[in-house]
From TrEMBL:
This is L-lactate dehydrogenase. Beta-D-fructose 1,6-bisphosphate binds at residues 151, 166. The gene is ldh. Keywords: Allosteric enzyme, Cytoplasm, NAD, Oxidoreductase, Phosphoprotein. Catalyzes the conversion of lactate to pyruvate. Allosterically activated by fructose 1,6-bisphosphate (FBP).
Amino acid sequence: MAKIAVIGTGAVGATAAYTLITSDLAEEIVLLDINRSRAEGEALDLGDSTAFTGPVLVYAGDYPDCGNADIVIFTAGAGQRPGESRLALAERNHSILRDVLTKLAVHWRDGLLLIVTNPVDVLTYAAAKLTGLESARVLGSGTILDSARFRYALSAYAGVDARSIHAYVIGEHGDSAVPLWSRATVAGISFDDFCRQKGIASPDREAITAAIRQAAYRIIERKGATYYAIGLGIRRICEAILKDQKSVLTVSGLCEGQYGYRDTAFSLPVVVGKNGQGAALELPLDTEEESALRKSVAVLKTAQERLGL
Ligand code: NAD
């Protein structure tokens, strides 16, 4: 059983802690927030939950308490306001990340770092550079959520359990995310072939791609933040790590030459297990997907340069 530290116990951090409490993955969860009282409130509420879930030691702590954490989850910082892009948060959240990682480094050396705060790819790149940790140990939640949204959209369209659909979104977790339509399959057959066999038309790719890219905007406009699906996405990544499941997930990490790209971080399907992430997989892309990925990487590199990374 493991110890997890959650830094930033707002909507996303608290929801992630809640999903972890209900999943029997960790025996100890430490919550840390610049607003100590908020972390304490969440810890008390979550502590009460353990009478229903089974014993988990959950408490509000400080950096020394993170020392032996197997996974440190970074969810601190500003979220998008209605209509605001993730990239617009870069400067504010980069400075919070720097501050947190400097304090963390005094106490924490082993374990894995999971970045969730937006813009997640830019901050994952920054975290890898700032900590100097080997690239396998610095993961970003990346497009795990976008891939879930893609699978959910295809599932609703085709009337098949989303868990029976393999479909990936790569690139930026943001406005330039790239759904890989050419690789989407059900039972090993392409999604278009599946639709033909079912006697239904192929879905409107542009509409679904736009819905995936705009999903967060639609939710934030209505309820101010997104946190349930990413909370479960965080749990899924922690599960793959702590149970050494070697699951293929679209998480963000340092790109090491895949598709010819370097010196940046974005999501590709990766095998995730106890040592973090393996080398990212290179799926064959069609020309449209190649061009969309090129644009996505260019967006991220520009954002990195603006931060001086
Ligand atoms: P929130 O405002 O509810 O919570 C942020 C928390 O961070 C607050 O409790 C705040 O006190 C804390 N914080 C700020 N500075 C800190 C510091 N220096 N040290 C410790 N704690 C600090 O925001 P939220 O809705 O929980 O979102 C958090 C981040 O997660 C945002 O950047 C948001 O865009 C991002 N997010 C990412 C995904 C994803 O898929 N990667 C999905 C949803 C949200």
